[in-house]
């Protein structure tokens, strides 16, 4: 599959483009930037054949099958819809949009154009995700009681970072909170009912949430607690708690580490996973879905559901109140 990349963001340059180039089913055929010099520089550095000085030029290229969109969050809707209208399949960086309403419009555009849409949560395409699900389903850790997730890092000194522009979709919930939130949904296998979130909003950083902690309510008394931040020491992980045991995943979202299962019989390590690159897996699974060889593991509508939860979390943090998740309670 011939990919075009819209934008020269760090995640594209350092992770996604090299992964597509390493994949079995894809090649990066073109890259576009807002200026031709930046596009040519990046193309030369990464051995990409074509460089465009405008996003529209890349979308007009008939040799491009799919696009990867790593633009700032507020641009996801515009360029996803334009890509769909140009007949390109879309892999859009997380979060899919600024809110669920935008995500609905984006996915409708892709459906109408007959193209595939996927949100770039690469960690979900790692084989340990399915292994965790199978352990839970087996009953080995008993009945599911709670999930805890975290993703924090400290980038507060980088005052000009796009993550600190509220109107661009900045803030820790958008940037890293979406990881544990999405993880809880697939682990529990249901949509949440309500969210209560407390956040640190920093005027030094455009008024965005630099740290957030929350409780997400699911049915049957199952709860998910999480924290996320861009002004805290680095850590990331997920813990799944059952009545008879628990599962602990360190480096849950960016690494390929083994994970540990704790039961009454003791503990064991699941893995290793042969240094599987999440981004390579994402590229190949997307391509196979486009070629009709397999169904993409996460339907486009999953992005809408995740944004509904993000919407509830942001509203709760701003209003200091418990917020029902739209859709689940209608």
TrEMBL record:
Domain Gfo/Idh/MocA-like oxidoreductase N-terminal positions: 1-119
UniProt-recorded Gene Ontology molecular function terms: nucleotide binding; oxidoreductase activity
Pfam families, alphabetized: GFO_IDH_MocA, GFO_IDH_MocA_C3
Annotated signal sequence range: none
Keyword Heme listed: no
GFO/IDH/MocA-like oxidoreductase domain mapped to chain residues: 130-248
Keywords (A to Z) from UniProt: Oxidoreductase
Oxidoreductase is among the record's keywords: yes
Gene3D superfamilies: Dihydrodipicolinate Reductase, domain 2, NAD(P)-binding Rossmann-like Domain
InterPro entries in alphabetical order: Gfo/Idh/MocA-like_OxRdtase_N, Gfo/Idh/MocA_domain, GFO_IDH_MocA-like_dom, NAD(P)-bd_dom_sf
Family membership: Belongs to the Gfo/Idh/MocA family.
PANTHER family: OXIDOREDUCTASES (PTHR22604), TRANS-1,2-DIHYDROBENZENE-1,2-DIOL DEHYDROGENASE (PTHR22604:SF105)
Protein name: Oxidoreductase domain protein
Organism: Paenibacillus curdlanolyticus YK9
């Amino acid at each position: 599959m011939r990919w075009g990349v819209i934008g020269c963001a760090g995640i594209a340059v350092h992770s996604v483009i090299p992964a597509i180039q390493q994949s079995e089913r894809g090649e990066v055929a073109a890259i576009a930037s807002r200026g031709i010099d930046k596009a040519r520089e990046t193309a030369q550095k990464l051995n990409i054949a074509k460089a465009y000085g405008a996003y529209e030029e890349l979308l007009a290229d008939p040799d491009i099958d799919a696009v990867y969109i790593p633009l700032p969050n507020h641009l996801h809707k515009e360029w996803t819809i334009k890509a769909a209208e140009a007949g390109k399949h879309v892999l859009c960086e997380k979060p899919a949009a600024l809110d669920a309403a935008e995500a609905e419009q984006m996915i409708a555009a892709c459906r109408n154009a007959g193209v595939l849409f996927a949100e770039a949560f690469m960690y979900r395409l790692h084989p340990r995700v399915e292994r965790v699900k199978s352990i839970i389903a087996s009953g080995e850790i008993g009945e599911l009681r709670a999930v805890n997730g975290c993703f924090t890092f400290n980038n507060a000194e980088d005052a000009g970072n796009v993550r600190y522009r509220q109107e661009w979709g900045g803030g820790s919930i958008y940037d890293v909170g979406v990881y544990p939130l999405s993880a809880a949904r697939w682990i529990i296998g249901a949509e949440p009912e309500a969210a209560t979130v407390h956040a640190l909003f920093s005027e030094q950083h455009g008024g965005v949430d630099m740290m957030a902690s929350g409780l997400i309510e699911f049915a049957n008394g199952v709860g998910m607690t999480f924290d996320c931040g861009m002004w805290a020491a680095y850590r990331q992980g997920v813990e799944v708690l059952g009545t008879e045991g628990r599962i602990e995943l360190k480096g849950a979202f960016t690494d390929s580490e083994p994970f540990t299962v704790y039961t009454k019989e003791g503990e064991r390590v699941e893995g290793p996973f042969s240094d599987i690159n999440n981004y390579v897996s994402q590229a190949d699974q997307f391509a196979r879905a486009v070629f009709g060889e397999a169904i993409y593991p996460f339907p486009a509508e999953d992005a809408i559901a995740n944004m509904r939860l993000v919407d509830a979390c942001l509203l709760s943090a701003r209003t200091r109140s418990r917020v029902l998740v739209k859709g689940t309670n209608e």
